[in-house]
Design goal:
- β4, α4 and β5 form a beta-alpha-beta unit.
- This protein folds into three domains: 251 residues, Aldolase class I (TIM Barrel); 47 residues, no CATH class; 85 residues, Beta Barrel (Elongation Factor Tu (Ef-tu), domain 3).
- The chain is of the alpha/beta class.
- Helix content is 25%, strand content 24%.
Length: 412
């Protein structure tokens, strides 16, 4: 059984560093527009490419650029310029448009076909292989049995999603946001109306005395469960062994718009699951432990996606909010760090700190560091609580001035 690549999302430098420190084999990211997270506002810029490459090279990690939005005629020249600019810094381009595939091939770039192309059978994969594509991210509608069959028939390098948000539409190709807000999901601008509650109002239901329909009515219903179009999040920790047995080359974690602690936690958990399978230590107890861990960070109700069948009534979430079992509270910022002593000086701006608190420090270079407060000091004293408006020193992993400090609160 081969070791699959753990492919992590990176929406900014803090998430990137969290992915690298947590054991990702590869990261994927976007550059402003022309990708499926264009609206998130946390994409990288072209000027960031050299630093992304430097950090990835330090860890021996691959970097993939998402260029998978619908491309219109007037955008081909800037897309080609972007491909040329990015080529020296990335290992592959994730694309969904035939014109963009052609431009990548023109410049000798490695092409991974995005799930946005909805590739769902071996004939399509064989055709893509004939066009020089090196990897295919299969449609999320494929069952595990179909994934295994496609891999066996084609010998193609296959990537599939193993964790994160899912779309109610076919492989994310949806017009609902465009219809409601004029913002296209196929251009990375989705406003996610499917995640909201819906009100149903009767029309053409009543007639007047002459049998003509009355178009207005006060008859209204809030649809229950109130997130009838909101798909559950995918969680594959319970069948990682079967995904590996199918021969999947890359385990893709969704979440370029999610936060750094999500990236850190999910990468660590899937890395542990993969290592356990290879070592013969993959047990129900481990699955339960890892599932508890990923539940700490942002998630909706979990489900197996469509790996075990096409969607049914149990594919949709009952809650519109995150079910994370922990929440972070902003404490303050690092104002100094004493490297030899391993001590951070923190300005308390919001939530107070005390010994025993679980905290995280987030930073663009630091990534995410989590630890328990073991000691607080200020001018030779040991305050019981570091209150808002004060400063305090505490033992901490390597961090930087300006990094943000968070208290991690456990929800009941």
């Amino acid at each position: 059984m081969t070791r699959p690549e753990i492919l992590a999302p990176a929406g900014d430098f803090t998430c990137l560093q969290a992915a690298l420190d947590s054991g990702a084999d590869a990261v994927y990211f976007g550059l402003g527009t022309l990708n499926m997270r264009a609206r998130s506002g946390i994409n990288f810029k072209v000027e960031d490419l050299s630093e992304i490459r430097r950090r990835c090279d330090e860890k021996g990690v691959k970097a993939y650029l998402a260029l998978n939005a619908i491309a219109f005629e007037g955008e081909l020249d800037p897309i080609e310029k972007l491909i040329v600019a990015a080529k020296p810094y990335v290992d592959a381009f994730i694309v969904a448009d035939w014109g963009v595939i052609g431009l990548c091939r023109k410049h000798g770039c490695t092409v991974h076909v995005s799930t946005q192309m909805s590739t769902s059978n071996s004939a399509a994969v064989e055709f893509l292989k004939s066009q020089g594509v090196e990897r295919v991210v299969l449609a999320r509608e494929c069952t595990l049995e179909e994934v295994a069959e496609i891999i066996e028939k084609t010998g193609m390098e296959i990537e599939t999603f193993v964790h994160g948000a899912q779309c109610v539409a076919e492989s994310g190709r949806c017009l609902m946001s465009h219809e409601a807000f004029g913002k296209s999901a196929c251009r990375g601008e989705c406003r996610q109306p499917c995640r909201r509650r819906f009100l149903v109002q009767a029309v053409d239901l009543y007639e007047d005395d002459e049998g003509r329909p009355i178009h207005q009515s006060d008859t209204r219903f809030i649809v229950e469960p109130h997130t009838v179009l909101s798909a559950r999040d995918l969680c594959s920790l319970g069948f990682v062994d079967k995904l590996m047995a199918a021969g999947i080359a890359s385990f893709k974690i969704e979440g370029r718009a999610r936060n750094a602690e999500y990236v850190k936690t999910t990468v660590e958990c899937y890395r542990r699951a993969v290592e356990a399978v290879l070592a013969g230590r993959y047990t129900p107890e481990l699955v339960e432990e890892l599932t508890r861990e990923v539940k700490k960070v942002f998630h909706r109700e979990f489900g197996p996606g469509m790996y075990y069948g096409r969607p049914g009534h149990d594919q949709f979430a009952d809650s519109e909010d995150s079910l994370a079992t922990t929440v972070k509270r902003h404490v303050g910022i690092v104002i100094d760090y004493f490297t030899k002593a391993g001590i951070a000086q923190v300005k308390i701006q919001d939530h107070p700190l005390k010994v025993g608190d679980l905290v995280q420090i987030h930073g663009q270079t630091t990534g995410v560091k989590e630890f328990t407060v073991t000691e607080l000091k200020r001018d030779g004293e040991t305050p019981a609580v570091a209150e808002k408006g004060t400063w305090v020193t505490l033992p901490a992993p390597r961090c930087r001035v300006g990094d943000k400090v968070f208290y991690i609160e456990t929800r009941n």
